[in-house]
Write a structure and sequence with these properties.
The chain is mostly beta strands. Helices cover 12% and strands 37% of the residues.
Length: 83
């Protein structure tokens, strides 16, 4: 999936509980001989309209990387519509 990543969205935990920022990815490179990566962005992350977590919804707060399309992210009103 690393080669397919074009944007990174930032989820902020409680009390905000929402995706609040989005940044376009320029390149991703492996850090030394580890399973960690360095992200290079084409520009700083910009604030977006908050995509809120639905309390007691079927989608829980992200605990690990989650993948979606930029289109779904831009059209979503809440996290239920993102994932």
């Amino acid at each position: 999936m690393i080669n397919k990543i074009k944007h990174i969205a930032a989820y902020r935990v409680s009390p905000i509980s929402a995706i609040t920022h989005l940044a376009p990815v320029k390149k991703i490179e492996q850090y030394r001989d580890s399973h960690k990566y360095i992200l290079h962005f084409t520009e700083p992350a910009h604030e977006i309209d908050q995509i809120k977590l639905v309390p007691k919804g079927k989608v829980k707060a992200p605990q690990a990387p989650r993948y979606t399309s930029i289109k779904r992210l831009q059209e979503a009103q809440d996290l239920e519509e993102v994932f």
